Protein: H(+)-transporting two-sector ATPase
Amino acid sequence: MASRRLLCSLLRSASRRSVSKPSNSNPPASTAPSQRPPAKVAGRGKITDEFSGAGAIGQVCQVIGAVVDVSFDEGLPPILTALEVMDHSIRLVHEVAQHLGENMVRTIAMDGTEGLVRGQTVLNTGSSITVPVGKATLGRIINVIGEPIDDEGELKTYHFLPIHREAPAFVDQATEQQILLSGIKAVDFLAPYQRGGKIGLFGGAGVGKTVLIMELINNVAKAHGWFYVIFVVGYS
Structure:
């Protein structure tokens, strides 16, 4: 009995000492405010997540067809940023494609560069090219910068999305392969289209590309009620 009481008293005293003695593994909390981790720095040395250069004014340095070089006095717009030419006869938007160094960027014009000269001012919009989205765009024809070109009036919508976005996650995509029935027997039998895939039509003038697209839209819309988005390159 005496040995049991002695053991209990030793355990109590040891527990009291461990509670009263501060642990070295848990230092006291500091009252100073914590600092934010440094932002990610790109290979060219600029903080890309906090800098967009919106509102900066540049000047046209060189025009080679659709390729236009623009210089900025301070800061360079990030890649894929939209630049808009000021005091021009038409709305001319450029997209930044490359950094050339010495505060100069190389851009691609989204329209003809006729009349564009060196020294013209260019505005950095601070974002990529955005286009209207939503139900107001159904049945409409718009160009690459989101302007309607079908003579049906302006698009009345407040919803816009950038043309450069991350792809949907794999969990949001369908994994099974399905055939898109076009209603054209020759296409469905010889070269069936995959639902959710991409379809490219290549051919010379007068071979029936437009007729095939119009027939495809008509058949699928009447049979399934799906939405069609068609991108046309180099089409008058």
User: Anything to note?
Assistant: The chain has three domains: 57-127, 129-166, 178-236. Helices lie at 2-20, 185-190, 209-224. Residues 178-236 form one domain.
